[in-house]
Amino acid sequence: SWHNQYKDSAYIFVGGLDYELTEGDILTVFSQWGEIADINLVRDKETGKSKGYAFLCYEDQRSTILAVDNFNGAKIAGRILRVDHVSEY
Fold first, then answer.
1. Which candidate among 57, 63, 68, 80 keeps its CA 20 to 30 Å from the CA of 10?
2. DSSP H helical segments within 1-89, as ranges?
3. Could you give the CA distance from residue 61 to residue 17 in angstroms, rounded to a whole number?
4. Which residue ranges of the chain lie beneath pLDDT 50?
5. What phi and psi, each to the nearest 5 degrees, are found at residue 5?
């Protein structure tokens, strides 16, 4: 499987997020695939507003496969997500 090249990273990239979504909203949606250990919703340094993408780390790396397979291309809050593995975070 192509997922195997990412077996050493439990991080995923989530792009295309609605700018109004909070860390709590993202955790609620993505925690259905496993326990989330870390979230970094990237924000503008000056305004503090979301830039529309985040990095998530799961407790169990196998959860990344479920998240990528089930959420890449999914529509949340009217926007289509891009979800992919991250080899180095």
1. 80
2. 23-30, 62-71
3. 22
4. none
5. -65, -15
